[in-house]
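Hi W.,

Here's what went into the run:
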Amino acid sequence: MKDKKDFLAPIMAFMVCTTCITILEGVVGMILYPEQKFGYDAFFSPPLFGFCSVLLGIVTYSKKELSVKQVLVRRGIHLLLIEGLIFGINYAAGIIFEPLAGILLAAAIALVFVTVYVVLWLNDKRSAAMFNEQLKRYQQQILESEKFTPY
Amino acid sequence: MKVSIRKITRKEEEQVVIECVEITPEIRDIHSYITAKGIELSGTTDDQHMQRFRLEDVHYFEAVDEKVFAYADKQVYEIKMRLYEAETAYREYHFVRCSKSVVLNLMKLDSISPALNGRFFAHMKNGEKLLISRQYAGAFKQIVMGGV
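Here's what came out:
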């Protein structure tokens, strides 16, 4: 049975990713290229990069239960693919970064990547807290229903 | 209501008989109390002794290779049952599948916490930590959360 979480998690990842990329592009742009001006088409780049990044997340999907090590390796591959995608698109568009700018951009991409997973983890933590609260009620109800009713 | 207890010698002949004019909610309460408390399983311990133990003392069932083990309060028993059979037979006693190899007792679950990749850890009341796999996490949570 497909869990709705399987569909919601990528959507949430896309939202967080797009937000982070927008902020990232603003901050990195102001630092490295403060004189640069863009048209309206620039608004499409964060959701496009966000979509592509989530799409590349396919490498973390598996029908089998992965071990922690396998999950971490796949996430590493996911990050490398995103880095490759962004640098590749920039290279194809004729933008070649100076070493310092390249390192800064790579670090910023990694920061966005980590932020997305932290937000998803916080969401899981919130859902676990709700579950735990409900679990206590559930157990209490069961214990009460199993109590011997005196006459 | 009269209550009488008659002592017998053979354990396997123990039984509770309810004699009533009508099955009222109170009778149903007594019935569910007895059925929940009364289930006993038999299993083999590490030293190959066959022992009986109560279902309500079981924290979880785990399948390892072709064997199924019941982890009770103080002892681990190998039982002659498939994991899916335990899952089906004891579902109404709050046993829920949490991964491909584990069926846990919700009444012995203390809390859950997030793990990697949409999975969760189940922290049992005896201090053990089990994995709730992504595949079963949704259905698992649904049982407790219901419509919440």
